[in-house]
Amino acid sequence: MSLQSQSVFTAGQPVPAQLPVHSARELTAGGTQARIELDGKVYDLRITRAGKLILTK
After folding, report:
1. Which of 8-36 are b and which e, b meaning 16 or more Cβ less than 10 Å from the residue's Cβ?
2. 48, 54 in Cβ contact below 8 A?
3. 22-57 to CATH, choices 1.20.120.80, 2.120.10.30, 2.10.70.10, 3.40.50.300
4. What are phi and psi of 3, to 5 degrees?
5. Could you tell me which residues come within 8 angstroms of residue 26 by beta carbon, excluding any fewer than 6 positions away?
6. H or E segment to which residue 37 belongs
7. Are 45 and 36 in contact (CB under 8 A)?
8. pLDDT tens digit string along 17-47?
9. What is the layout of strands, in order, in the sheet containing 41-47?
10. Model pTM greater than 0.70?
């Protein structure tokens, strides 16, 4: 079986074996903060000085 056809199940829902990868540096346009919208709600994504990600509502 190829990797493309395999799925992982999370909370009873199939998840593609290869999930999309997004660069946090690109999302923040080279800065340290970005806003992400989901279903009309806006979340703040921040890259810390230690290189970790924080996502807040």
Report:
1. eeeeeeeeeeeeeeeeeeeebeeeeebee
2. yes
3. 2.10.70.10
4. -65, -35
5. none
6. strand 33-38
7. yes
8. 788 999 999 999 999 999 999 999 999 999 9
9. 33-38, 41-47, 53-56
10. no
Q: Which amino acid is at 25?
A: R
Length of the chain: 57
Alpha helices (H) along 1-57: 24-27
Distance separating alpha carbons of residues 7 and 46, to the nearest angstrom: 30
Distance between CA 35 and CA 39 in Å, rounded?
13
